[in-house]
Amino acid sequence: MSTPRLIDAHHHIWRLARGDYGWLTSALAPIHRDFGLPDLAPHLARHGITGTILVQAAPTESETAFLLAVAAANNLVTGVVGWTDLEAPEAAVRIAELAADSRLVGLRPMVQDLADDDWLLRDSLAPAFAAMTRHRLVFDALVLPRHLPRLLRMADSHPNLSIVLDHCGKPAITAATLDPWRDDVARLAERPNVVCKLSGLVTEAGANWQPDDLRPYVDHVLKCFGAERLLWGSDWPVVNLAGDYDAWRDAADMLVPSAARDAIFGATAERVYLSHRGVG
Predict the structure, then answer these.
(1) Regarding the domain delimited by 6-277, which CATH topology (the fold level of the hierarchy) does it fall under?
(2) Rounded to an integer, what distance in angstroms lies between the CA atom of residue 124 and that of residue 134?
(3) Model confidence over 141-159: pLDDT tens digits?
(4) Which of 36, 101, 250, 257 is the most exposed place for a label (fewest CB within 10 A)?
(5) Is a pLDDT exceeding 80 seen at residue 2?
């Protein structure tokens, strides 16, 4: 049996001059500059990673077009998670148009930044969720712990929609808090249409984190989801706010059991994002 290729299932690129990254201010000095694939390439080569999922960082369709153009010019990017207005009256039509590009594998509203904590439960989203299901697009859930009960209800209402929980739901690692995140994640894991992305944890842990700070959270999602429903992502370059690509990858290598590595570091992403869409 061949070894699955290694995939970074979550990274970004950006050009500040595009002007639609409202969250990316000079206060975030380590990442407040342009980042492109040439900056990422040495990290990928060092770890033998040969495919990536490029994820939106701005809530605009121009961001989606930008990322798809980058993917079209570089075979290293195997899929794009973009953005469109899921509440727009024409959302279903627009999703169908975007899905015509096989490089688009998912869509991600930036739920963590929305004022309405119940946004995921709005009836106005139903046509978009149905269109995403029809076109085999993944819903990437960028949420905070308080959103997890709402995400659970959404998953139950749309059982055929493939959902990826970004960054393990952003647990409060700096406070060493497990509850109620722990129970909410366990309930989500009972839903077969939900998988979990092992990413973003170091920025939730803050500066000077150690692998043992992450261990309770990694162990919990491993227990709940199992290796076949976990996928690893760097969250580069955001990861630079609390370390760097290599430190997070090395920590993940230490925290993930050897028997789980093929799935978490490649095979799950291949199945969830690429085979699901018939690409890869």
Answers:
(1) TIM Barrel (3.20.20)
(2) 17
(3) 999 999 999 999 999 999 9
(4) 257
(5) no
